[in-house]
């Protein structure tokens, strides 16, 4: 987890060493059994964090799990040696798990059998309390007056053995997480937002995996500058070749071939490996080493018949068009959206909650573009529930939206 950045503050006391020191990484069944016993005998919430190797390895696998519980101390667990950690989840039973930005870590924890029955997300709590900065380091500083280091937030956590400095950083990420939780929980209660927070935490805990994106190759950075279908076919072919190579080697795709190189080839349309090698973006040692394979991918795209070339525009989604076009396409929908935005802005100021946390922008746009008929409060409430809006959000906006829509 990236801890976030805090500016140097003379009132913030640096947190430089875990209270129990830096323990060994647990990677054997025997050592894990001792951790299970300790955490089962511990008390209170379980602080949890996970580290990935984004930018280094293919996918979003977890390479270190950090847990802390009163009476048990901190455990640093190696998912490579311990692919199934479900016994630990069973041992702590119904205990609450405390995470920062839980949506980032819960999928990886679930892959190893760590399925919290309840969560408290300190980042979400900070958002509901309208804290100016919500990174972990900033929240720790604001709530406890302690400073977390950030220098190892983007390292390659798949490295083995992990350096002691990295492990110290990882242990500190859960060192005071429960204390932060307690401060934030008290503030939420005082602000009348405890129930809102509980619904948000359950929402993030039960989020289903995201659906696969259609044409994922279109997310290659710079693809919008490729204006013809043949060039887009080259982007697609190179992207697919890069994915296969990255998956086989367990390397981040960007390290195999940068997006800018894919786009440059799509514009140059080289006919030979020599021509491709002359493209400046292919001047790196890694790109040149596989120049023949990249040219084969380009050749396959160049040989496609016209009918098999991808369209310039990506596949249509079931969502509404870009709001900037609504004024011409559906002026009434545009007025609904303007009214909804004004309501959200007013509620944001009244309740001191960021607008994006009051209602998911996509749900609001879909409602304004194609509202239910009739668009009474309960109809709007049901529509929003169908978009996974929480009850506290529905309670705030449904009546107001219904009245506003009736006037447009």
TrEMBL record:
Domain HRDC: 228-308
Region (Disordered): 1-20, 309-329
InterPro entries, alphabetized: 3'-5'_exonuclease_dom, Exo_C, HRDC-like_sf, HRDC_dom, HRDC_dom_sf, RNase_D-like, RNaseH-like_sf, RNaseH_sf
Protein name: HRDC domain-containing protein
């Amino acid at each position: 987890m990236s801890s976030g950045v805090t500016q140097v503050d003379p009132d913030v006391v640096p947190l430089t060493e875990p209270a129990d020191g830096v323990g060994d990484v647990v990677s054997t069944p025997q050592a894990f059994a001792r951790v299970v016993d300790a955490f089962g005998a511990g008390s209170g919430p379980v602080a949890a964090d996970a580290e990935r190797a984004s930018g280094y390895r293919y996918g979003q696998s977890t390479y270190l799990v950090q847990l802390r519980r009163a009476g048990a101390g901190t455990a640093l667990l190696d998912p490579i040696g311990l692919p199934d950690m479900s016994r630990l989840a069973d041992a702590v039973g119904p205990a609450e798990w405390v995470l920062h930005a839980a949506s980032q870590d819960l999928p990886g924890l679930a892959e190893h059998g760590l399925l919290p029955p309840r969560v408290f997300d300190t980042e979400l709590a900070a958002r509901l309390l309208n804290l100016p900065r919500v990174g972990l380091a900033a929240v720790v500083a604001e709530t406890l007056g302690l400073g977390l280091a950030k220098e190892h937030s983007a390292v390659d956590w798949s490295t083995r053995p992990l350096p002691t400095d990295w492990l110290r950083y990882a242990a500190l990420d859960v060192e005071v997480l429960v204390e932060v939780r307690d401060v934030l929980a008290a503030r939420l209660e005082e602000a009348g937002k405890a129930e809102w927070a509980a619904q948000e935490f359950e929402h993030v805990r039960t989020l289903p995996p995201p659906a696969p994106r259609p044409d994922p190759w279109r997310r290659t950075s710079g693809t919008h500058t490729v204006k013809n279908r043949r060039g887009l076919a080259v982007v697609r072919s190179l992207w697919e070749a890069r994915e296969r190579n990255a998956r086989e080697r367990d390397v981040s795709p960007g390290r195999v071939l940068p997006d800018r190189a894919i786009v440059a080839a799509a514009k140059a349309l080289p006919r030979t490996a020599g021509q491709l090698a002359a493209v400046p973006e292919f001047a790196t040692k890694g790109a040149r080493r596989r120049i023949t394979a990249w040219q084969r991918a380009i050749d396959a795209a160049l040989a496609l018949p016209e009918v098999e070339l991808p369209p310039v525009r990506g596949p249509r989604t079931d969502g509404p068009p870009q709001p900037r076009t609504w004024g011409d396409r559906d002026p009434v929908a545009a007025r609904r959206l303007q009214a909804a935005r004004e309501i959200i802005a007013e509620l944001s100021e009244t309740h001191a909650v960021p607008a994006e946390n009051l209602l998911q922008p996509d749900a609001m746009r879909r409602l304004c573009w194609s509202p239910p008929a009739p668009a009474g409060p309960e109809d709007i409430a049901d529509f929003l529930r169908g978009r996974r809006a929480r009850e506290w959000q529905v309670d705030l906006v449904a009546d107001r939206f219904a009245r506003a829509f009736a006037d447009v």
